[in-house]
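re: ur question from earlier - yeah i can do the single chain one, its not a big deal. heres the input i used so u can compare w yours
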Amino acid sequence: MTPEHAADPYIYRYNILEFALGADSSLEITVYPRVWIPETTRFEADRARIGGLDRTTFNLPCPQFNLPPMPPNPGAGGQPAAAPEDQDAFARLNYFFWRYLSWQDQLKVLVKANILPMTTVPNLQTMARMGLERARHDGKLRQLWDKIMPFVPADKREPNPFANPDN
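and the output i got, formated as tokens:
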């Protein structure tokens, strides 16, 4: 944020933060510092701040955090697990789920699809993400897509890209 009293030679800076799940239950935070370069009139990597590098990564141990294992039942209910070529379709399903459903609707869809994780997770977004991954693992993406589409505005709806199990 730029303070109200900022004036030349104030140096404009910002950081891009990237979060990732690291090995051994850790959180990896990569910081990409950026600084305004008036000569080129653009932001560039602020290498002076981190020893000549364009980014630095911090690894925070989180020993009490563990992702629950996925249930060992691929193809549950006679449905095949999602094929690798369904990656784009799964990305679209995620988009519609997060873009058009309120948190209440998200929870209703996860309950109706019977894909809530089997563990107690206090954060709804974490629970929803785990539910979406479980739907992919259990081969329930077609059914989940059909449950999401009624919440999407009619002009934004798309046909279900997941294979019909009856074909």
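The mean pLDDT is 80. not sure if urs matches, ping me
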